[in-house]
Design a protein that fits this description.
Shape: globular
Number of domains: 2
Distance between the termini: 77 Å
Helix content: 25-40%
């Protein structure tokens, strides 16, 4: 709708559709979603829980009347998409996808004005998604920042939830959302425009809640014309949230810092592989670089990388994902090599980190501690390869942190082989260099195997990853068993360990 000759309003919609494909229960779900969007006169749409994996992404590749930007993650969970109506004046600049399918960030121009559009699904199994997104946006967001999505928590249980229960309490996810909004100076648009109205966006049995929201920076709230919750039957247990914003006609030519080193004209090149390296991961790795004299790297280069970190998120992302696609090996002992190693190590650690749930027995009459011997270590590639394969989805494995995002395992397996130096005496052995990010991650993976051996021998074990020690709770063990345990593990892995026994 035209507001003034020099202004227009745009209708933004955020909606958790709990899948977008047709199902047995909803045989016309996909078409019903887009019929609802037409009825709502939607211009820009954020959809959560698309459930789009490698086997079904083509459903979003060519949607008549829309430009589509989406994540490919899993056909049963997560996934987000941003849709831009063809009639909207739109210029693509660049975008970033969460490697866990939790969000997509689109840098663009709408009616020639710079925007950062963010669609987020704050999945309950991934407690780190808002933290990752916050750190990325604090460095990269420019222009008009619009954040929408399903945040899986209400802002206030008294105002934003109605149920049969007489007790109201904050969700455990509320603190993560508070940190996210405060850090980015964001305000909930519903609370701003309709402070006394309920506006529930989700129904579940007798419970109603407002967990789907649009956030804007404080200084952009004057753009809000209207916001309302719409009816849409038969799609999901969420209702669409519709936000109308005034859009200023501009003739801007400035670019966001994140895109300054990208080739022009900007071109959207779809990459439908799951688990790609994200700009957020690269940014986090660069920011963590400190004194790197042990790596024989020039600190001037480190300072330069830190200064240009925003621009490098896009250029390195292209390079790393091209390496992955072509299975190419980068040059060792460089900053780029170190950054890539840190990203892979972080992913590996995420898959094996403890859940911090449940009780841990502490009173045992005797216990033994197992640790890795000091000094240089070598690991058998065959052992490491099997352990990496066992982490893959569908392979039975020990309990892991529910927040651990599933990495793209072919990335880990291939590049672990490339990044770890081979021993000159045997192509089967890989050197674990002290201080290398991958070394600690591999030790932690080996600790999991040690614990599995302990459990198979009807003992109890407790791992402390910071100490890189396994505590085994057993009756007194003989020296013969100690020798057997050490030799079996060394034969399997190539790693050298030591065991010491402690009376209570």
């Amino acid at each position: 709708m035209t507001m003034q000759a020099e202004q227009k309003s745009l209708f933004f919609v955020t909606w958790n559709t709990n899948g977008i494909r047709d199902t047995r229960k909803s045989p016309q779900k996909f078409s019903n979603i887009f019929k609802s969007l037409r009825d709502l006169q939607a211009d820009i749409v954020f959809i959560q829980e698309t459930h789009v994996g490698t086997d079904c992404y083509k459903i979003l590749e060519d949607v008549p009347g829309w430009k589509v930007f989406f994540t490919v993650h899993n056909s049963r969970s997560k996934g987000v998409v941003i849709l831009i109506k063809d009639k909207v004046k739109f210029e693509y600049i660049c975008h970033d996808e969460d490697f866990s399918g939790g969000y997509i960030v689109l840098f663009c121009r709408l009616h020639h004005e710079l925007y950062t559009l963010v669609n987020v699904y704050n999945n309950k199994s991934d407690r780190n998604v808002l933290g990752r997104l916050k750190d990325y946006l604090m460095e990269t967001a420019e222009g008009v920042l619009v954040v929408g999505g399903d945040f899986n928590t209400v802002l206030h249980p008294c105002f934003d939830r109605r149920s049969l229960s007489s007790n109201a309490r904050h969700s455990q996810f509320r603190a993560f959302l508070e940190d996210f909004t405060v850090s980015l100076n964001l305000r909930d648009t519903w609370s701003y425009k309709r402070p006394t109205d309920e506006g529930f966006t989700r129904r579940q049995n007798d419970s109603h809640s407002r967990i789907d929201m649009f956030f804007l920076p404080e200084h952009k709230l004057g753009r809000v014309c209207k916001i309302n919750v719409a009816e849409a039957q038969g799609v999901s247990d969420h209702y669409p949230l519709v936000l109308e914003l005034t859009v200023q006609q501009r003739t801007e030519t400035n670019l966001p810092n994140v895109a300054l080193k990208l080739p022009k004209p900007f071109k959207y090149t779809p990459d439908r592989r799951p688990g790609k390296i994200s700009g957020a991961e690269i940014l986090s790795a660069i920011k963590s670089l400190t004194d790197l004299k042990e790596y024989s790297l020039d600190m001037k280069d480190v300072k330069s990388y830190k200064k240009r970190r925003c621009q490098l998120t896009e250029t390195l992302k292209i390079k790393y994902n091209s390496m992955i696609e072509n299975k190419a090996e980068g040059e060792r002992n460089t900053l780029e090599y170190l950054i890539f190693s840190q990203i892979l190590a972080k992913r590996l650690n995420a898959t094996i980190s403890p859940s911090f749930k449940g009780k841990i027995a502490t009173k045992h009459y005797t216990f033994s501690t197992v640790k890795f011997e000091a000094g240089p270590q070598k690991i058998k590639w065959s052992f490491l390869e099997i352990k990496l394969k066992n982490l893959q989805p569908g392979v039975k494995k020990p309990k892991q942190s529910p927040s651990a995002p599933p990495p793209e395992f072919s990335i880990l397996e291939h590049f672990m082989d490339c990044l770890l130096p081979k021993d000159q005496s045997s192509s089967e052995l890989r050197l674990l260099e002290p201080g290398c990010p991958l070394t600690n991650a591999i030790f932690n993976l080996a600790l999991n195997e040690l614990e599995a051996i302990v459990l198979r021998n009807f003992c109890k074990g407790t791992i402390c990853y910071q100490r890189q020690v396994l505590r085994v709770h057993t009756p007194p063990i003989t020296s013969d068993f100690v020798d057997f345990f050490i030799n079996v593990f060394k034969k399997q892995s190539g790693l050298k360990i030591s065991i010491s026994q402690h009376p209570d």
